[in-house]
Amino acid sequence: MHFIDEATITVRSGDGGRGCVSFRREKFVPRGGPDGGDGGNGGSVLIEVSPNLSTLLDFRYRNLFKAARGQHGMGKNMHGKGAPDRRIAVPPGTIITDADTGEVLADLTRPGETLLVAKGGRGGRGNSAFTSSVNQAPDQAEPGRPGRERRLRLELKLIAEIGLIGLPNAGKSTLISRISRAHPKIADYPFTTLSPVLGVVSHRDEEIVVADLPGLIEGAHRGVGLGHRFLRHAERTGGLIHLLDASQDSDGIVAAYRTIRDEMEKFGPELAARPTLLAFTKMDLTGARENAERALAEIGHQAGEIHFISAATGEGIAPLLDGMLALRKGQTDVA
Predict the structure, then answer these.
(1) 3-class SS at 208?
(2) Which of 247, 244, 245, 242 is nearest to 288 (CA)?
(3) Helix 227-234 vs helix 250-267: angle between axes, to the nearest 10 degrees?
(4) CB–CB of 38/125 below 8 Å?
(5) How far apart are CA 155 and CA 112, in angstroms?
(6) How many structural domains compose the chain?
(7) What are phi and psi of 174, to 5 degrees?
(8) CB 309 within 8 A of CB 279
């Protein structure tokens, strides 16, 4: 299943109910005073963050959301009931933008956070509201105010403390499946991870939320491949683990490293400056150590910033998890 992280929806708040023109009709009172009630307010449309959601998948199949209109006013000064608000649930990390103007309305990150996106129409006044000293029997009432319709763009950015980055097949999915309770589907071909996967890693009595992010290719900053989708999610993380496949030769490792760094720098300086650790993967394979050390000499990082790991055998996993904890707390030297 593909990860759904963008959607466009239409919302419409409810019209206000119309006011009522009515007069009291009582025995022996041929024409009583006005008693037309007010109309009820239309329902508003609100967007609310739900901690139970992690994608925008629901909006693929439904993109129109309406609130009900207010009840009309009635005689005997009976006011119409206001319509209930319509609430639309979205996952944490959803950015709401007006699709027509491009205005960013909110960046919703906290569970329970709510945004009013279309206020319901006000109910019209009944004729009893128009009584005055010069008009004891008004026969006018107001119609309800119309609701508001607008198009909204929803854009989801994952919220994770640590993000795993690297070219396709760098070993991100294998690593996260080993260290966390997430179980991504894994296969040996590029772009295996078509959707970001969140995993909760338990280590030293602490928990870390780690995101396995889709692989990058050259040109991602322009939207090539998974492009901006990947980079958008990477922006949310507090720190990054850059995974490099040590089963390839040193030239390939250096090229992979530079591709990722170049794409991040082109996307934005803040992303490129995010605290990042390097981890060479697949160290259980023949020649991996030599490949990694030759690549390191050209990349030029200090040894303290490097991890050598094998998700298959468990080599280097515990020190890497220690590095993740330190990275999250800002207590480590990073690239």
Answers:
(1) strand
(2) 247
(3) 80
(4) yes
(5) 18
(6) 2
(7) -65, -40
(8) yes
> Are residues 238 and 310 both part of a single domain?
yes
pLDDT tens-digit map of 128-140: 999 988 888 899 9
Confidence of residue 1 (pLDDT cuts 50, 70, 90): very low
Per the DSSP assignment, residues forming a β-bridge with 34 are: 23
Tell me the one-letter amino acid at 180: S
Point out which residues pair with 211 in neighbouring strands: 163, 198
Contact 66, 14 (CB under 8 A): yes
CATH classification at residue 106: 2.70.210.12
pLDDT for position 195: 56
Is residue 276 within 8 A of residue 323, CB to CB? The reply is: no
- Range in 43-52, 123-132, 158-167, 287-296 the model is least confident about: 158-167
Q: ∠ CA(252), CA(255), CA(259), 5° rounding?
A: 140
For residue range 178-209, list pLDDT tens digits in order.
Answer: 887 554 443 333 333 445 666 778 888 887 87
> 202: part of which helix (H) or strand (E)?
strand 197-203
> Measured between alpha carbons, how far is 261 from 134 in angstroms, rounded to an integer?
79
Question: What pTM, to 2 d.p., does this model score?
Answer: 0.62
Q: Is the Cβ–Cβ distance between 114 and 165 less than 8 Å?
A: no
> CA 283 to CA 109: how far, in whole Å?
38
**CB of 73 closer than 8 Å to CB of 17:** yes
Q: Which two tokens stand for residue 113?
A: 């956070």
Domain that holds residue 73: 1-156
